[in-house]
Amino acid sequence: MPLTPHSSRPGAVAMAAAGLLLATVTGCGAGDAPEPSARTASHARAVPEAPKAPAPTRLTVPSLGIDSELLRLGLNEDGTVEVPPAEKGMTAGWYAGGAVPGEPGAAVLIGHNDTRFGEAVFHDLHTIGVGEGITVYGGEGKEAHFTVTGTETVRKNAFPTEKVYGATDERVLRLITCDGAFDAAGHPVDNLIVYATLR
């Protein structure tokens, strides 16, 4: 489903893996205030361990004109996943608690659709098509080339946690942003998820 003209940024994403429950924040309102979709266990770790492979540094989606450096995203104190700050709306972020893009597992990149400063890095993500290419660059000149296999718009309160974050031996990538109509607080109620696999 396409984004509405006013929909904005990545929001409520939940994850349950190895007994750890995570949830992303949503900064999708006019004030860019975070709003977790679910609370995490009080013992949730605040900072993911550093990956063994070099962290990704850049994302390109040629068909959409996206060329973005990647911020490292961890967890907030309440256990919710960080999103890029509104003032860096044109920069996507990599969730360091997931896989490094190109390595076995699900790698997750989060980007804003738009912010109070205007259109953001994933503003046109809803137009991406199956078969289109995504490249993620890492340290030491490494490149991971992915092909889009599908897209899905989901309610934030029914996020497909296992499908997005679940353990897998495949080398897969997910891009996540906001989508859909607004709730009473001014936040989009849906997430747009792009699924891709390593070529």
Automatic annotation (TrEMBL):
<dbReference type="InterPro" id="IPR042001">
    <property type="entry name" value="Sortase_F"/>
</dbReference>
<keyword id="KW-0732">Signal</keyword>
<dbReference type="InterPro" id="IPR023365">
    <property type="entry name" value="Sortase_dom-sf"/>
</dbReference>
<dbReference type="InterPro" id="IPR005754">
    <property type="entry name" value="Sortase"/>
</dbReference>
<feature type="signal peptide">
    <location>
        <begin position="1"/>
        <end position="30"/>
    </location>
</feature>
<protein>
    <submittedName>
        <fullName>Class F sortase</fullName>
    </submittedName>
</protein>
<feature type="region of interest" description="Disordered">
    <location>
        <begin position="30"/>
        <end position="57"/>
    </location>
</feature>
<dbReference type="Pfam" id="PF04203">
    <property type="entry name" value="Sortase"/>
</dbReference>
<keyword id="KW-0378">Hydrolase</keyword>
